[in-house]
Amino acid sequence: MNTKYWIVVVSKDHCTRGVSGGFIQACHGKQAPLKRMKQGDWVIIYSSKMTMNGTEKCQAFTAIGQVMDEDVYQFRMTENFVPFRRNIKFYDCHEISILPLINELEFVINKQSWGYPFRYGFLEIKEKDFELIRSKLLDYEVGR
Q1: CATH architecture of 5-137
Q2: HSE-CB for 96 with a 13 A CA cutoff
Q3: CA dist., res. 78 & res. 99, Å (int)
Q4: Distance between CA atoms of 65 and 93, rounded to whole angstroms?
Q5: Per-residue burial over 66-100, b = 16 or more CB atoms within 10 Å of its CB, e = otherwise
Q6: Are 90 and 65 in contact (CB under 8 A)?
Q7: H helical segments located in the chain
Q8: Domain residue spans in the chain?
Q9: The Cα angle at residue 130 between residues 127 and 132, in degrees rounded to 5
Q10: Where would I find the H helices in 28-121?
Q11: What pTM was computed for the model?
């Protein structure tokens, strides 16, 4: 199995909701990004803002977990909003600022415009970048 490593951009308040519920939504509930993930893949949440509609910056990696199964499913949040979700096993971690890591992250090509890779809300990263972020988020090794 080829493990892949993903970053999903989610506001911190939505991250907290997903972690407590053991799920992730991406790109305002779209199905396509979630279908790219496979069971056992790793997911890191990057929160650029504290709240989805707010302006207060967070600029931190706020959660880490693994895709639990192959199911992509819909969940009715309101009458008019039925987003797609994936089940994620989240690990206890420490929120870490992206700022001290920018120069070391390979997926950040232009260090001056470091936020650019996050613009679509979902991206695959290489294992080296994942390991750097994971080592800061987690105090211990997880089942790898």
Answers
A1: Roll (3.10)
A2: 17
A3: 36
A4: 10
A5: bbeeeebeeeeeeeeeebbbbbbebbebeeeebee
A6: yes
A7: 12-21, 32-36, 127-137
A8: 5-137
A9: 110
A10: 32-36
A11: 0.92
Q: How many C-alpha atoms does 79 have within 13 Å on its Cβ side?
A: 0
Q: Residue 77 — pLDDT band, cuts 50, 70, 90?
A: confident
Q: What angle do CA 89, 66, 143 make, to 5 degrees?
A: 90
**Per-residue DSSP letter, 81:** B
- Is 107 in contact with 123 (CB distance < 8 Å)? yes
CA-based nearest residue to 60, from 137, 119, 131: 137
48 half-sphere exposure, CB direction, 13 A CA radius: 16
Q: What is the pLDDT of residues 5-60, one digit of tens each?
A: 999 999 999 999 999 999 999 998 899 999 999 999 999 999 999 999 999 999 99
